[in-house]
Amino acid sequence: MDRFSLLLLLLSLLYLSPATSFRFPETRSPATQAQKLIRDLNLFPKHSVNILARHATNASFRATKIVEKPFRFPNFVDADGVSVEDLGHHAGYYQIQHSNDAQMFYFFFESRNNKNDPVVIWLTGGPGCSSELALFYENGPFKFGENLTLVWNEYGWDRASHLLYVDQPTGTGFSYSSDKSDIRHDEQGVSDDLYDFLQAFFAEHPELVDNDFYITGESYAGHYIPAFAARVHQGNKAKEGIHINLKGFAIGNGLTDPAIQYKAYTDYALDMGLIKESQYKRINLIVPVCEAAIKLCGTDGTVSCMAAYLVCNAIFSSIISITGNINYYDIRKECIGSLCYDFSDMETFLNKKSVREALGVGDIEFVSCSTSVYQALLMDWMRNLEVGIPGLLEDGIKLLVYAGEYDLICNWLGNSRWVHSMEWKGKEPFNASSEIPFEVDGREAGLLKNYGPLSFLKVHDAGHMVPMDQPKAALEMLKRWTEGSLKGTASETESLVSSI
């Protein structure tokens, strides 16, 4: 019996067992689920993916390798009297080396603090959502004011680092191709593209080569980040090109080890009072089938991974069918209709002609979240990306896993469990270590566990998007972590801000 047949048998047993008297909830198709993800954020991209006719764009620069330009956003009210050069804001395209015609768009913001600050790249998940979501609503240099104006973000991560935001995978944001075969389907393709981009970026900015480098992001980037970190480390060891001074990687409310994290859904929902004990028991009947499906999927992305996606998401769907209009990114809030957040200002702003001219992207439409990229990665969804992390830790590469306590979809409990179950040389002392308060302004902003290169931080009063909900604590977290003082006493963020 092949893997897929075995999985179908398991499903049939669950459906037909008279002892359970349980029926699977109606599970949305991947296309419908992807569209709901986008609508929940009040986003309405014109296209499902940026696939353009060859040379159809009149962008002011077409990359042959990497091309970037300094720019200033229109309506940036706090930048009056500041030159483009002084701002240190750049937009660029990189022609992806191992592609047919893919162009990767990125933003680069120089640190407002010190030229020797670390270089930090941020990856937004989805999969298929542009990193500009974080740029404008979480940890970027600015945020929206009235009438689509931009003002400085007091707690932007450029207060402590040079910042890169990349529209990836291909087809997301302003990134595009003329060839559908450039759409990536697995972490190998995603991480190779990002590694090639870094090689080109540091060749363009040799003054930053010796700076510490950190990979960060959230949500489905819990897949991207470990794969990307492993790819950079592999390139360094093999001396493939420019040595990238990788010091660590951080995953915020991420999906990394699905087998452990999907099993944690019902426990988290019960602990938080979202479901009753009887409902908990009924939904947990799906868990063994989900675990078996993920095991069949393994780490190589076969057809059984699609079945695992459908089976395991029935656990999440069952909880949501009970909770109704709860915001699954932050269970303290409710969604009004289909609207859980309103990120529409970003989409409107980036599609303005004046903004596109400033960035040099021409007539390219901004794809806030791509349903096509989402579906292309379905075989990747249930893969376990924890497997490559122990080797990184044991080579001294730091990992910070942090999670807002009120997020359901990538909840802190599931993240804590995979971190604690990970087999590495420091597993026992890490698990035996005590939680200590993570304090900001003399108040407890979270609970921290740390041993050696591994840290786990449960962030108080935050949902899925920690830098949006707790911007000051998130900036302090980044600063202390990159300085190696996460569990010690660091200077207050106000001191950092006022000194700039």
UniProtKB/TrEMBL annotation:
Xref: InterPro entries: AB_hydrolase_fold (IPR029058), Peptidase_S10 (IPR001563), Ser_caboxypep_his_AS (IPR033124), Ser_caboxypep_ser_AS (IPR018202)
GO process terms (BP): proteolysis
PROSITE patterns the record matches: CARBOXYPEPT_SER_HIS, CARBOXYPEPT_SER_SER
GO cellular component terms, semicolon-separated: extracellular region; vacuole
One Gene Ontology molecular-function label: serine-type carboxypeptidase activity
EC number: 3.4.16.-
Function: Probable carboxypeptidase.
Family annotation (PANTHER family): SERINE CARBOXYPEPTIDASE-LIKE 49, SERINE PROTEASE FAMILY S10 SERINE CARBOXYPEPTIDASE
Protein family membership: Belongs to the peptidase S10 family.
Entry protein name: Carboxypeptidase
The species this protein was found in: Helianthus annuus (Common sunflower)
The organism's taxonomic lineage, starting at the top: Eukaryota, Viridiplantae, Streptophyta, Embryophyta, Tracheophyta
Gene that this polypeptide is encoded by: SCPL49
